[in-house]
Design a protein that fits this description.
about 550 residues; alpha/beta; 8-stranded mixed β-sheet; two-stranded antiparallel sheet; elongated; binds zinc ion
Length: about 550
């Protein structure tokens, strides 16, 4: 007669998934907890509550991912893989303050054995052993209970759905703080183990990369100026103001109830009301706006191409980019550029940031540096605004522009009433109204020697709490119109109307037409009378008003 040896208790797949998720999310994110703890906006009990909710969300998402692998043959290997990746990631993030994004994964994959062995250390071994080795040994010693196929499928899908629902529910509760945090500290998303590795892996394999290989493709190599430009005594002068985070619906020119455009309302201009942006963030919109491809083709492009500024320059114009923001996203790489954002001019700058008006204070000096033979043909200046950049809208305006009060003065929007957030945002538009009217004023002062015009268009809009959504950057397909419908304003001097044969009256009749950033490339070339095969007349907003 034999007595059975005592058996280890069998663990269900669900229990293993939950235990592994807790370990990966809590112990595997030591660096993240350390970094979050160091943030001033997350100090105190509220910060602690937020961090707990954040940890809970990570646990739920990891549970959802692992539940899809909760099969006898796949669960233990999958958990082990995530443990090892998390162990290594924690070491490097803790020691070197790196984040784990796609390019870092590419670096790791391209590291050869000799370089890798240089980096091996006792500390690394201890971290990986503690975070990954010991839990993995424990894991592999657990017998896993087996369920019939059908029941296991239901179990796994149920667990996945439940944990996603819990994660989503928690996100709703902390959304404002969460959005502010992600916006102010964009690197945090790359510090969340093991989701950063999973994301980077997906980016490298399933989701195609946005960075295109190969040489830059020239466009508009046949670009020339039309005869009307070559024979004019007063060369055209266009200021293209690239707005920031301005949304169409908050412009009183477009029907907003509050007077956010007191100065522009006095000018003879056209404000287009239905212009769709190309993206919902600066990095996504700006390169697309200046491209000839349009939104659909831009996202599918296989090469990087030159942009409208290259074509204008090739046609013979003097082109200048003045940046009062975080840079031109590669759009000014081949043209003269100046950055005003970090200037220290007392009347225009404070706290390491300059008001947009500083660009006008610099323009004469910067224009004088451009080649005179080009300026004799005409000039295009891009002014890249700081505009309504959030979430600290209140920082954008000086006291005299704070028309709507009280303002939200907390970078964490969640600390404010919605009214205060909208007040602070609308004040940034009042400042943009002032800036644009000063641009028009400066252009008018050039009428003796030039034929001036202005075109203003914002890069994307902003959510201000509609449906509890704030800021911008949602995937385009699901983004609300607050984020994608942007203001676009043209001002043509009488001389420019004559030169281009485009009348403001005709444009005003078309102001409610559905337009988009796709029109920008061709409209600028059309307005500046550049002849090239890459120009498409049907996308030129001004073409329909030519000669009318
Ligand atoms: Zn932007």
């Amino acid at each position: 007669m034999f007595i059975d040896a005592p058996k280890r208790p069998q663990r269900s797949a669900t229990i293993l998934v939950i235990l592994a998720s807790l370990w990966l999310s809590l112990a595997g994110n030591l660096t993240l907890w350390k970094n979050l703890h160091a943030l001033p906006e997350l100090s105190g009990w509220e910060g602690l509550g937020f961090t707990v909710a954040f940890a809970w969300m990570i646990t739920c998402i990891v549970t959802a991912i692992l539940s899809l692998f909760a099969w006898r043959l796949t669960l233990k290997p999958m958990i082990t893989l995530l443990l090892i990746i998390t162990g290594f990631a924690t070491h490097y993030m803790w020691m070197y303050g790196i984040v784990l994004n796609t390019s870092m994964v590419i670096n790791v994959l391209q590291t050869d054995v000799r370089e890798a062995s240089d980096q091996l250390s006792w500390r690394l071994l201890l971290t990986v052993m503690g975070l990954a080795g010991l839990p993995a040994i424990w894991l592999w010693r657990q017998p896993m209970a087996e369920l019939p196929w059908g029941k296991q499928i239901l179990n796994n899908l149920g667990l996945c759905a439940l944990s996603l629902a819990l994660a989503f529910g928690t996100l709703q509760l902390i959304f404002q703080d969460f959005a502010s945090l992600m916006r102010n500290h964009t690197q945090i998303r790359h510090q969340i183990n093991p989701l950063n590795s999973v994301n980077a892996f997906l980016q490298l394999t399933v989701i195609s990369s946005d960075k295109k290989d190969g040489p830059l493709q020239p466009i508009g190599e046949d670009a020339t100026l039309s005869n009307t430009i070559s024979h004019t005594q007063k060369p055209p002068l266009l200021i293209l103001v690239l707005g920031e985070t301005a949304r169409s619906q908050n412009f009183s020119l477009n029907g907003y109830a509050r007077n956010t455009n007191p100065l522009l309302a006095k000018e003879q201009l056209t404000s287009f009301t239905q212009v769709a942006s190309c993206g919902t963030s600066t990095a996504e919109s700006v390169p697309c706006m200046f491209s000839h491809l349009g939104r659909q083709d831009f996202s599918k492009r296989s090469h990087e191409y030159e942009n409208v500024l290259d074509v204008l320059q090739r046609a013979g114009y003097a082109v200048l980019w003045i940046d009062n923001q975080s840079g031109c996203k590669g759009q000014c790489d081949r043209i003269p550029t100046t950055n005003t954002a970090s200037l220290k001019i007392p009347e225009h700058c404070e706290g390491g940031e300059c008001r947009d008006i500083v660009m006008l204070a610099r323009i004469d000096t910067e224009l004088a540096k451009l080649p005179p033979e080009r300026r004799a043909r005409g000039t295009v200046v891009v002014m890249h605004q700081m505009g309504s950049h959030g979430p600290a809208y209140f920082k954008r305006t000086s006291p005299e522009f704070k028309k709507f009060k009280p303002e939200c003065t907390d970078t964490s929007l969640a600390q404010c009433d919605r009214e205060e957030i909208i007040n602070a945002y609308d004040n940034t538009l009042v400042l943009t109204d002032f800036f644009l009217s000063r641009v028009i004023g400066w252009l008018k002062a050039q009428e003796n020697s030039h034929t001036p015009a202005m075109l203003y268009v914002s890069d994307h809009g902003e959510s201000l709490g509609e449906k509890n959504i704030y800021l911008h950057g949602l995937p385009y397909r699901v983004a609300p119109p607050e984020q994608t419908i942007v203001p676009m304003i043209t001002w043509l001097s009488p001389g420019f109307e004559k030169l281009s044969r485009v009348s403001t009256k005709c444009l005003q009749n078309q102001r409610d037409k559905a337009l988009s950033h796709d029109n920008l490339f061709h409209s600028v070339l059309g307005l500046m009378a550049v002849k090239t095969s890459v120009y498409q007349r049907e996308l030129d907003v001004f073409a329909a008003c030519e000669g009318r």
